[in-house]
Amino acid sequence: MSKKYDTIILGGGIIGCSTAFYLSKKGQRVLVLEKGSLGQEASSAAAGMLGVQTELEEESPIYELARKSREMFPNLAEELKDMTGIDIGLSQKGTMRLAFSEEQRADYREIAVNQKLKGEESFWKDKEEIVGMEPCLTDSLFGGIWFPKEGHVSAPDLTQAFARAAAVNGVTFRESADVYQLIFHQNQVVGAATDTGDFYGSAVLVAAGAWSRRFLLGEEQALYPVKGEALSVKTEKAMLHTTIFTDDCYLVPKKGGEIIVGATSTPHTFDKRVTMEGIGGLIHKAKRLLPLLGRAEIDRIWAGTRPMTGDGLPIMGAHPDLSNLYFSTGHYRNGILLSPITGKVMADYIAEEATLITDLSAFKPERFQYQTEVSPL
Ligand SMILES: Cc1cc2nc3c(=O)[nH]c(=O)nc-3n(C[C@H](O)[C@H](O)[C@H](O)COP(=O)(O)OP(=O)(O)OC[C@H]3O[C@@H](n4cnc5c(N)ncnc54)[C@H](O)[C@@H]3O)c2cc1C
């Protein structure tokens, strides 16, 4: 029998790599199995926004988790830089959510007031103030909310940094290791079978993003893919300081004049072809926000596959009938933002320690129906 690990993680995206990192800090022997190369799917397609107040509703069980996660980034950036030399590109220059109608103006003003009452930094800005802060923006707007604490990172760099830091702590990574089946013994999961060999562990964590449903996540509506197309442009001079967020398009200013424009949303497909309609629509919307973008050079276009769940919340916890099989998936549009807290909480959970957030009940796997037999892959 081959070497036995404490935890085997299926999937080398940001969720698998961050959990490997936090498990390694506990001294666990961890193996990550990735079917291609680390970070090759959603985690390298993401714009890297850390959008708690911009994107999430305060009533959602995910809001508090996301807020805690955002707070982890400054220390994490330093820790990962020290361990790996990788700069995760943390920028904390805020996000503006723009209003384009009277209705949105009224709604956003209310959101700003309510968030402020709850102690969040959130400010309504009239059109003149917004254009004063970001002079290249269109002036065809009704104002917007300014969230100074929001920011962004480089999603591919953060994924690689988690992986390298985990490797420094002794985690083993096997790329080109496509897991085709879980291995069972006496009604327990004892390992994972890949085309390059079988691996055994005391616990198995499924962190295979949109592909996680293959591993006992039976019900179709439990987890499904949502395609997102995006592009990046190069500008000679920086046109934006802050992230710009609207209902149908966002602009994320990165280092060196790069701006990421995102993203489309097409559910129920693993197709990653980039389309004229998708990219053309984004270009049109982006130019309306920032007219000078028409002169920018297109740098890259791409598509990725977000893991979405039936109720929009991630699935985090143990299988209802198989206590050493865990899931951490379904982070949809916020997996980069949620990666530090998810890694920390799941590592605590697997190691059976008290979690930072003790109540994970809103994310428990049993809210969906499960199979207890392996489906053919
Ligand atoms: C266009 C776009 C923009 C986005 N922007 C943001 C953003 O600004 N902020 C934010 O927080 N989030 C954003 N997201 C969402 C974020 O990218 C995801 O939530 C996150 O990357 C999910 O991470 P993951 O590790 O669960 O999945 P993935 O990154 O998809 O990783 C899963 C891994 O599992 C591997 N795998 C699958 N099956 C197997 C198998 N059988 N055996 C072995 N390995 C397997 C895959 O190859 C893959 O590497 C965006 C997503 C997209 C597509």
Distance between the termini: 24 Å
Cα Rg: 21 Å
User: Order of SSEs, N→C?
Assistant: EHEHEHHEHEHEEHEEEEEEEEEHEEEH
CATH superfamily of the largest domain: FAD/NAD(P)-binding domain
Count of domain modules: 2
Low-confidence stretches: none
Q: What is the share of helical residues?
A: 25-40%
Please state the overall shape, judged from the principal axes of the Cα atoms. Answer: globular
Q: If classified by CATH, what would the architecture of the largest domain be?
A: 3-Layer(bba) Sandwich
Strand content: 25-35%
Task: Provide a concise account of the structure shown.
With 377 residues, this protein is of the alpha+beta class. The model has no long low-confidence stretch (mean pLDDT 93).
Protein architecture, described:
With 377 residues, this protein is of the alpha+beta class. The chain has two domains: 4-77 and 155-220 and 310-367, FAD/NAD(P)-binding domain, CATH 3.50.50.60; 92-149 and 224-309, D-Amino Acid Oxidase, subunit A, domain 2 (D-Amino Acid Oxidase, Chain A, domain 2, 2-Layer Sandwich), CATH 3.30.9.10. The protein has nine helices and 19 strands. Strands 4, 5, 6, 12, 13, 14, 15, 16 and 17 form a nine-stranded mixed β-sheet that branches. Strands 1, 2, 8, 9, 10, 11, 18 and 19 form an eight-stranded mixed β-sheet that branches. Strands 3-7 form a two-stranded antiparallel ribbon. The longest helix is centred in the first third of the chain and has 24 residues, at 61-84. The protein is globular. The mean pLDDT is 93. Bound molecules: flavin-adenine dinucleotide. Flavin-adenine dinucleotide binds next to helix 1, helix 2, strand 12 and strand 17.
